[in-house]
Description:
chromatin binding; flowering; mainly beta; single chain; nucleus; two-stranded antiparallel sheet; BAH_sf; SH3 type barrels
Amino acid sequence: MAKTRPGKKDLDSYTIRGTNKIVRAGDCVLMRPSDTSKPPYVARVEKIEQDNRNNVRVRVRWYYRPEESIGGRRQFHGAKELFLSDHYDVQSAHTIEGKCIVHSFKNYTKLENVGSEDYYCRFEYKAATGAFTPDRVAVYCKCEMPYNPDDLMVQCEGCKDWYHPACVGMTIEEAKKLEHFVCSECSSDDDLKKPQTAFPVSPGSDGKVEPKRRKRGP
């Protein structure tokens, strides 16, 4: 364990003011911004300290929202997407408003219900340079965009690629009613056998085999 400076001591936990919610190192929290018109900041608590005046401060690692990154928000970024940055900071524990959960991308796509406290992260982000890790992700559809879990997609029974309904000339309502779908490139294959399983509706659906996809940067 790292040594604390004179007059400071490490705390195992902190109870959020006005609540019974307990925060520990490793937890993700919502922190009050100075501009109250903005959404709360999201951070991962790395350490909790108390000084000799009983002031509690937390060392945090910030998550960035896409619009806070150098490249900005893009079409494939989900509403609840965050980037784990290399930006560390020390803040008063009193600025913690609540707790949240930052899921892995895979686990987020398996959630049956997404709550207000649910977020996901698939990239780490270098705040100074705008670089991402990984710097390439799978892309889908004719538009060759990474998967956005907020968007409905349909899977071709032939090539197993995934498509946005709008990119193949159908509405969301029509896509939801589909029992089978074959893309234009595969529709000439007369030997295509239709599967007997339920029709999957997103690349993140549990238990579905995804093809190896082309790659592009975030």
